Amino acid sequence: MAKWSKKRPALKQSKPSRIGPGVPIYGRRTRAALLVLLLLPVVAAAGLLFIKYKLESFRDTVAKQAEERLGLRFGAKAVEVNGLRGLRVEGFDALFTTPLGPRLRVQAPETFIDIDLIDLFYGQMTVKRVLVEGASFTLSREAGQPWFNAPRGGGLMPKTLSFRVTGRHCTLRIAGSQEETALELRELAFDVSRLPQSPDTVGRIHGLLGKGRGRPVQSTFRYGALEDFDLRVSGAGLVAADVNALLPAGARLAEESTMAPAIRLSGYPDHTLVISVHAPFTNLALADSSLLPPLTGTLSTLASYQLDTHEVKLTSARLESAQMSGDVSGTLSVAQPPGVLDLRLSVEQFPLKEMARQAVQAALGQYGEVDFEIDDPYTIALALRGTLDTPTLSVKAKMEQGSVTFKPIDQRYPAADLRVGMVALSWDSTLRQPVGTLNITGGTLRHGALGLAADDITGTLVLRPGKAILDPLTATVAGNEMAGDVTYDFSTKTAAFGLTGVLADVERLNFMDKLGKGGVKGAVHLSCKGTAAPDQVVVQATVDLTQAEVEYDWFFLKPKGMGASVRDLHIDLKAKQSLTVAGILSAATSTVAFDAALAYRDGTWKPQTVTARSDAVNVLTTGECLRLPYRLSGENATEGTFAWRPSPTGKPGKGEITTSVFFPRISLEPGNNLAPIVCNDARLTAQFDNGPDPGTVSLRVEAREARVPALSSPWLPPFRPEDKELDARFPRRPMVTRYELRADRISLPPWRGTNFEGTGFFSKEQNVIRHFAADIEGGGRLEGSYGVKRAENIGTLDVSWTEIPAIYLLRHMKFPELLTGTMTGEVHYSMDRDDPGTLEGGGRFDIRKGQFSADFVVQLLASQLDADLSALPPSLAFEQLRADVAFDGDKITTSDILLESEGIEISGGGYFILDGDMDYMIDVSISPKTAARIPVLAANLNISGHKATQTDIKLAFHITGPTFSPSGRVAGLPPVGVTLVNGAFTVGGEVVKIIDTPRQILIDLFKIIGGAVGVAKPAGGRK
Fold first, then answer.
1. Phi/psi zone of residue 122: left (φ > 0), alpha (ψ -120 to 50 degrees), beta?
2. ∠183-189-190 over CA atoms, to 5°?
3. What is the pTM assigned to this prediction?
4. What is the rounded distance in angstroms from the CA atom of residue 730 to the CA atom of residue 737?
5. For residue 244, with 0-12 CB atoms within 10 Å meaning exposed, 13-18 middle and 19 or more buried, which class applies?
6. Average pLDDT for residues 186-195, to the nearest whole number?
7. How far apart are CA 828 and CA 144, in angstroms?
């Protein structure tokens, strides 16, 4: 009991009363009792007035007494006498500052102070009890200061003070660093007291923690001094927020956990506090840690707190749970806000598999599902370090072997099934990414979209903050070993990679089906590096295609074994936007730089442009790669260009191709030992458009000099050869092909000319040489056209020539070179090529200033000249040789035949049937002078008679019979005065031998001339 009065005076001992003799004892007692009854009201009234007086006096001194004895300052709205019990304090407000640092503010609407009335009569003020009703207690600390500091003065209260303070329906608020983090204990009831002459203050406190129904908390304490006190606190159903409220601003150690802690705090010498905690908990999850699963178990801790250094040191701590268990050690320093943690957990049991899966899934979950197995043995170490507001949980794990599987959610990424060994990984809650080393000892990668598989994968995966590095990496792809490296940046989601090795059987890759008319088969040696981001892939590569077969459409095929490579290959792919490809292709001595651009539209990649350039194109190599009906040879080409663009029609997949190349010399040999087409200083330009229907192909050759086979040779076979296999893989479509040839000089045996130009069209319906023309070497010009309708197989020819050397036409028709001269003429016809009987047309021939070949005439007339060559006429020249020809089926009609020369004239006409009979009427007029100079004529004709009459010798012959053995007879007699020497005139066997074939009318003319010269039989009766 608190005694706020002076020492009570001792009562004097009264002497025993004596009653005299003779006085009745009962009478005296009665009178005494009556006297007491009369005095009692007086004494009571006087006592009440005395107590009232004393209480009024105490009311005036209570504040002063409290300040002097307790060392605190407080205020009150009113202090009133509460009847005879004591005082009533209204609006009590006091602030206590403890030696350890925290401050306690007490605000009570009513406080009752009970007084000891007995002591009050003796002049002493003894407080029996202080009762607080509905009071508010606020415990706080200075900003940035710890809860406990080294004492800054004496004890909490005078040691001589005895008291008892009780309370009910109160509230205790422990202020956090921020208003919303305050910890509040409601319905607080307490009883704190110190007995007289006792050194200890003891107390009991209980209440409800938090809002709503609250969580019950009980506490008992004993306090003798800072080095001798004991505080015990227990609670049930406490949550993480209750603990976090006591931490510095922003600090949260746990999330969504429930616990029932039993805490004991004791004071020891040297400013040391000992803390003991036994806390069962459920669903405990460390703040900002998605790695550790929620735990359910018990935490038992014994720690010491040094007030001088503000450091908590774990003496012993044990974590027990179904998921994880182990011993905890380390320190917590709160010397500087917000405090520093350094805790370590020695693990005996740990959910490594679940934790690792969660860590990897957090890092890679956006790409797919990750799962793995971990084999024993393995070791785990955990640490919690950093400041209280931003603590970092770190985990270190080591294991000898395990396995990892990855199932991507996007076809851009490969699926993995890998075996691992010698793993050393760590993870912390700041980076939230694993770091360390992982050795891959085997397994597979499967890329479904590409159809690509890698087996026997080995390598070392190094995980660094923000990066994953796989280097080195080796694998077997389609039976071939490949090596490479990969570095992935988690912040930018970008991978840098390199790859070297042989990729065999590339035709098995799924994306090969999407190359349209192109394709690659066989093995490809690849060396590349690049980067891959979510929206862009960039690759730099070198590709060796020597052991690969490269094909495009029906016309291009690079065979296996031919050296070919692509260097400086650059690929830039922007996801669902654009794709650009550029590089340099080398094959033998050919070098081609190319680039292409594609755009992503309507769910597919559509080409935009393709270009190529080259100043070195090996003709032999190119020829081996083209499926054309020609064999190419010659010098390397230069100035090569290639361009592709979408067709103006806008049809998907349709486009225009324009290519051009310059050949110093090129030879195109059709095969079958036929004569080649040879061009010097030639530029070849090709255009292809598959947009319209039918498509078009245009080939243009401009040459300084061109040598082509004779027109009788099949020197221009179809541009696309017949091949059923190719037709099945690359179906034909209607195409119109246009050929154009221009040459400064041209040789087309037997023709030779300059300024040649020709244009031809080839389609499903017809083949047409629309126009050809040339200046013929030696003079004159030749031009014409030719066409064949495929359905009817009807060919048409129109050719005209002006003043050309006749020798060309003779050679073209394979006639003997029997004459020379300048020829003008034309021919035109049409015919079903399967039925020569449909031939229809005509022509004309006119040769001026010509001369027969002497050798030919000697050969023709040797038997008639009796070996006397001197008998030949001195001149074989002629002024004109002409004839008109008409074609009607197999009937060839030759009209208006005329041969004019010095001294001889032959005219006539007729017809012959192909492989049939012939019928010709020939008139021969010979001057006597000319006839006399020919012995055979002189021997058979009356030359002198013709000389006398000054008339020419005129003979008419009728030649009939089969074309292979015709016969002739004189069709009319000579004029009067002319006689025959032998009296008969017939055309004998010599004439027949001269005639070779009447199917070629020009040669027939020449042979008829020879027959006319030797019409008679020589002497001796020879026929």
1. alpha
2. 100
3. 0.59
4. 18
5. buried
6. 90
7. 116
